[in-house]
Automatic annotation (TrEMBL):
<keyword id="KW-0677">Repeat</keyword>
<feature type="repeat" description="TPR">
    <location>
        <begin position="176"/>
        <end position="209"/>
    </location>
</feature>
<dbReference type="Pfam" id="PF14559">
    <property type="entry name" value="TPR_19"/>
</dbReference>
<feature type="repeat" description="TPR">
    <location>
        <begin position="210"/>
        <end position="243"/>
    </location>
</feature>
<protein>
    <submittedName>
        <fullName>Tetratricopeptide TPR_2 repeat-containing protein</fullName>
    </submittedName>
</protein>
<dbReference type="Pfam" id="PF13414">
    <property type="entry name" value="TPR_11"/>
</dbReference>
<feature type="repeat" description="TPR">
    <location>
        <begin position="279"/>
        <end position="312"/>
    </location>
</feature>
<keyword id="KW-0802">TPR repeat</keyword>
<dbReference type="Pfam" id="PF00515">
    <property type="entry name" value="TPR_1"/>
</dbReference>
<dbReference type="InterPro" id="IPR051012">
    <property type="entry name" value="CellSynth/LPSAsmb/PSIAsmb"/>
</dbReference>
<dbReference type="Pfam" id="PF13432">
    <property type="entry name" value="TPR_16"/>
</dbReference>
<feature type="repeat" description="TPR">
    <location>
        <begin position="41"/>
        <end position="74"/>
    </location>
</feature>
<dbReference type="InterPro" id="IPR019734">
    <property type="entry name" value="TPR_rpt"/>
</dbReference>
<dbReference type="InterPro" id="IPR011990">
    <property type="entry name" value="TPR-like_helical_dom_sf"/>
</dbReference>
């Protein structure tokens, strides 16, 4: 009779602890369990999970070990303990548990995957072997395919990265992580036409961020889809408004589409934000003023570009053009072209050198006629 009452009391206590656990009152649930006189396998397992949920990993580890001492065949408890040890960075202990599990259950893909995670955290290059073992046992294992695809992307093995990504996406088209790897693999090869639909799918799934919007913007830019590129870059700025590259690209895009005021604003923002060097930004500002036929300001920015980088050939050439349009004195205009040719005639861009020589010849001819 006493045993029956005791069993009923324990059952009632377990039910109470389960209710408390379900609503997140982990400490109260643990308190109820600790008052149960019989530390059964079930009680110890609930204590282990309660401590884990509360974030008390050392106590959780202790109780998981007690459970396995009481019943070494509890595979799920061993799995939970192994994962807990990984969280605690007790990687050698976790490795021991999962090696034991893989020996007992060699066909279990999940145990191979956990070994891969451990090796990855240990920065052990053999991690990839375990991830490959995982997909050999379970070809559509999404997490393992992502790990393999990501590694191939990082090593610029784009073909393999695409292959692993597509394997996973064929089974789960909404896997954002694999869509990102696939999009980046195309993007990094400058296959923008293929990258665009993959980035767009990520946005359709509501997973946009600065990285996705800026990369999609650049892809649109390179495909001549300037308005779409502007839209994406502006959205990227909503995530991070102090990205100099985003402002720089917007500046160039607005110049292309004829909005020179916005072009100037974004190019100036790029200069203000960016640390050295900023000669490319100053060059773009100069070109924007050139389009406005404000040759004085164009000249100022080309000079600024050259102060940042005296080896910027385009800036030196454009400075000569701006000076030619701004100054009236022929000798001054001639000197700017001479300065460009003295520096780059032997090593520069053939087209620019040709144009500079033609213009210099015309100016000297004009000067000669005036002298006569």
């Amino acid at each position: 009779m006493f045993a029956i009452v005791k069993a009923e009391a324990q059952t009632s206590a377990l039910a109470v602890s389960d209710s408390l656990y379900a609503v997140g009152n982990y400490s109260e649930a643990i308190g109820v369990l600790k008052n149960i006189s019989s530390a059964s396998e079930t009680v110890n397992l609930k204590l282990a999970r309660g401590y884990k949920a509360r974030g008390d990993f050392n106590e959780a580890e202790k109780y998981f070990k007690l459970v396995l001492q009481q019943n070494p065949e509890r595979i799920l408890s061993a799995l939970e303990l192994g994962k807990l040890l990984i969280i605690q960075q007790k990687l050698e202990k976790a490795d021991s548990i999962f090696r034991n599990l893989t020996e007992r259950y060699p066909e279990n893909a999940g145990f191979q995957y956990q070994l891969g995670l451990i090796k990855e955290k240990q920065q052990d290059s053999t991690a990839g072997i375990y991830f490959k073992n995982t997909i050999q046992l379970e070809p559509l294992h999404q997490d393992a395919l992502f790990k393999l695809a990501k590694d191939e992307l990082q090593h610029r093995e784009y073909g393999m990265a695409i292959n692993y990504s597509l394997m996973g996406l064929n089974a789960n088209p909404g896997n954002v992580s694999l869509l990102s790897i696939l999009a980046q693999s195309y993007y990094n090869q400058k296959l923008y036409e293929k990258a665009i639909p993959e980035f767009e799918k990520i946005l359709e799934l509501g997973q946009g961020n600065e990285f996705v919007h800026s990369r999609l913007g650049f892809a649109y830019y390179n495909e001549g889809m300037y308005e779409k590129a502007i839209e994406q870059y502006n959205t990227a700025l909503e995530f991070e408004d102090r990205n100099s590259d985003t402002h720089y690209n917007l500046g160039k895009l607005y110049a292309i589409t004829g909005d020179l005021e916005k072009s100037e604003i974004h190019l100036l923002m790029a200069v203000l934000i960016k640390k050295q060097p900023v000669d490319a930004e100053f060059l773009s500002l100069g070109l924007t003023y050139k389009l406005q036929q404000d040759h004085k300001k164009a000249l100022e920015y080309f000079n600024s570009a050259l102060e940042e980088n005296p080896e910027n050939e385009r800036a030196l050439y454009e400075r000569a053009i701006a000076a030619d349009n701004y100054f009236k004195d022929l000798e001054t205009r001639i000197n700017y072209y001479v300065a460009y040719l003295n520096k780059f005639e032997a090593k520069g861009n053939g087209d620019l050198i040709y144009l500079a020589k033609i213009r210099l010849k015309d100016l000297r001819k004009e000067q000669h006629l005036l002298e006569e």
